[in-house]
Specification:
Low-confidence stretches: 10-45
Protein name: SH3b domain-containing protein
InterPro entries: SH3-like_bac-type
CATH architecture of the largest domain: Roll
CATH superfamily of the largest domain: SH3 Domains
Keywords: Signal
Radius of gyration: 37 Å
Number of strands: 14
Length: about 200
Amino acid sequence: MAIVKGIIPALTVCATAGVLVIASAPALGAGKPIDEPAAAPVVKPVHEPYRPPMSCMYQVVKVRPSSFLNVRQGPGLRYRPVGELTVADGRFVGACGVSHGWVALTSSSGKLGWASAGYLYRIPTPHPSLVRRPALSCSYRVANVRRGGHLQVRKGPGLTYEQIGTLDETDGRFAGACSAWRGWVAVTTSGGLPGWASSRYLKK
């Protein structure tokens, strides 16, 4: 009893002096639960990479006929596949430059993407003076071009050659070579200049 009586006055003095601190048990549920999962890592979105102009021709190489080459969303394996290319696809258009071993191109389904340059062969583009221009003994008209659009006529048989004129539906029928050379037909522009147009947009 003497000890208790001695403690009570001491507590009273300390409380009066403002130094008494009474610790209490933490409230139920306060603080971070032990079983709370760690915060998920922040995954940065993959942005669409810069895509250079596509004006060269390629074909798939080093790929078995029964297999295919992945076309990815960007120039690297970390990008997801968006399409594919096979040897049977033949020639297709792509960028003339290579970005870190990858080439911007179009998949067989028409989607834009990137493929490994190690499995692509760039088809050389001959100088216009080296391409023999055939006689224009057949008749054509523009086809597969949306209304109000036009077909580009280039200096040589390929997208790498400069544009020298156009053709459109209002030109009606015009003269052109009877056979195509690598997908291009020798024609004459609406302004009378000799050039080449894609056979895909011409109909005899």
